[in-house]
């Protein structure tokens, strides 16, 4: 009897086995993180309407200064506003269309803002009264339209980022790592043409009335751009403060896109006869060269912006409430 009792105690019951199998094969599922809420369209809608109104007024009043004749045409603001409205309308029915429209709207609006930095510098001299001659003359209607386009560009950018977060698939993180490598290689290649051209120009000596010096600033600027791309596209950026890297990426992309758009749209508008100004660039070969060089500025700005978006996604993690997200390391 004692031996039968010992055997019974050593042998687990079938019911316990079934319960253990059920526990192992059917673990409690992990809670699904909540999906980010849809972005509010109000800021973008207000900005798009203001851009349309201010741009219409600027076109009706006309330019009050000759310097702005080579700036990107004002109608780009209308294009960006329409695309922004498309993004808002398609927000709930076609999220991919809405996201693409918001990204393109931000680029169009940023292009429409080309020259706003020069406007601001002229306005500074006009307001302070510092003697600057013709440089203190400001195209006020155009300045207002370009400034509003810049504000709307950031509103469209925030809307596009929010839409992307709401549709982001964590399972595709490998694809995003591959995209970051492609952006890094492409961006590093685009950092070469402009400094190289300036070096060749410097080595060739003075050109007509222009004094050619060593392109130290150009080399420094594009070296910083290359370093910034390395921070955005490699694990080195995860060792630095996330806000600092993101701020550098967005500021760099704004400068490159704004300056590139200023020259690209200005030259293209002149060739197509959309603006009356005529900047003499010599023969057609020089115009093509200038267009190609500033194309690299615009393309590099777009790459830096895309790299910043992917960097922010790679360094953000969903964590329980009360805990901070640690930078992702690869």
UniProtKB/TrEMBL annotation:
The keyword Transmembrane applies. Residues 1-37 are annotated as: Disordered. The chain crosses the membrane at residues 42-63, 69-90, 102-123, 143-161, 182-202, 214-232, 244-268, 288-311. This is Uncharacterized protein. The keyword Membrane applies. Keywords: Membrane, Transmembrane, Transmembrane helix. Residues 28-37 have a biased composition (Pro residues).
């Amino acid at each position: 009897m004692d031996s039968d009792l010992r055997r019974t105690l050593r042998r687990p019951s079938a019911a316990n086995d079934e319960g253990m199998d059920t526990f192992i094969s059917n673990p409690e599922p992990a809670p699904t993180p909540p999906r980010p809420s849809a972005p509010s369209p109000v800021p973008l809608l207000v900005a798009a309407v203001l851009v349309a109104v201010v741009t219409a007024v600027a076109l009706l009043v006309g330019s009050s200064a000759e310097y702005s004749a080579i700036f990107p045409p004002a109608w780009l603001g209308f294009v960006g506003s329409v695309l922004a409205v498309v993004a808002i309308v398609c927000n709930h029915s076609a999220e991919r269309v809405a996201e693409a429209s918001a990204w393109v709207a931000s680029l169009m609006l940023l292009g429409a803002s080309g020259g706003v930095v020069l406007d601001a510098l002229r306005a500074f001299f006009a307001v302070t009264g510092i003697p600057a001659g013709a440089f203190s003359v400001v195209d006020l209607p155009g300045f207002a339209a370009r400034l509003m386009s810049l504000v709307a560009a950031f509103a469209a950018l925030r809307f596009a980022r929010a839409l992307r977060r709401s549709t982001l698939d964590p399972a595709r993180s490998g694809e995003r790592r591959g995209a970051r490598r492609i952006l890094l290689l492409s961006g590093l290649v685009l950092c070469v043409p402009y400094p190289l051209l300036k070096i060749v120009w410097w080595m060739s000596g003075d050109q007509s009335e222009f004094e050619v010096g060593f392109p130290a600033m150009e080399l420094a600027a594009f070296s910083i751009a290359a370093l910034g791309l390395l921070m955005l596209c490699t694990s080195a950026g995860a060792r630095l403060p996330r806000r600092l890297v993101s701020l550098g990426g967005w500021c760099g992309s704004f400068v490159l896109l704004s300056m590139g758009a200023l020259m690209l749209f200005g030259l293209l508008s002149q060739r197509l006869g959309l603006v009356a100004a005529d900047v003499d660039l010599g023969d057609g070969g020089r115009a093509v060269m200038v267009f190609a060089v500033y194309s690299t500025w615009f393309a590099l700005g777009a790459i830096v912006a895309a790299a910043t978006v992917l960097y922010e996604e790679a360094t953000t993690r969903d964590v329980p409430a009360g805990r901070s997200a640690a930078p992702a390391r690869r």
